[in-house]
Amino acid sequence: MDIAAVSALPYEEFVDIFGNVVENCPIVTAAVWSQRPFVSLSALEAAISDFIDVLPEAGKEGILRCHPDLAGRHLQGGTLTRESREEQAGAGMDALDSSEASRMSRLNGEYKERFGFPFVICARMNDKANILLQLSARCQNARAVERARGIEEVKKICRLRLQALVLNHAPNKL
Fold first, then answer.
1. How many helices (H) and strands (E) does the chain have?
2. 120/6 Cα distance (integer angstroms)
3. Looking at residue 77, what is its pLDDT?
4. Would you list the domain boundaries of the chain?
5. In the chain, at which end, N or C, are there fewer CB atoms within 10 A of the end residue's CB?
6. CA geometry: angle 71, 116, 145, nearest 5 deg
7. Mean of per-residue pLDDT scores for the chain
8. pLDDT-based confidence at residue 171 (cuts at 50, 70, 90)
9. Would you say residue 174 has pLDDT above 50?
10. Is 74 a catalytic residue?
11. CATH architecture of 68-153
12. What average pLDDT score do residues 96-111 get?
């Protein structure tokens, strides 16, 4: 689908297609729909990033809270979104040995206890060893640093999801 087709989508279809580029947060996509037409995929991505950037800190934390724990109960229970399931599987989160799973669960708990939102990292840009390393290291950060870092990871996830939805369908159109 080219960017002209994206821009021409009616509201409901736009939100249906792009509503999970920010995990479990279709309100972000709904809010940027009114900024059509988008001149490029980069412009759509920028509109989403700008929307997130102007949110108050509580709104940014809300976006972070929409993300599931990596290798957590949603993965184990099969209730992840399709995108998250594929991303976590690609990073090996569905293939942790018992020691890795125990460490991941413990660190996820510590992280959420310390910051009040789950650890967010772009799984498609990492493997399980690096995710565990980053989770352990980032548990030591200040809350404001982690909130900002988490939002940057959300933007990476969003960029890759947008590319998968648009570029993979029409690589020469954008």
1. 10, 0
2. 28
3. 81
4. 68-153
5. N
6. 95
7. 94
8. very low
9. no
10. no
11. Orthogonal Bundle (1.10)
12. 96
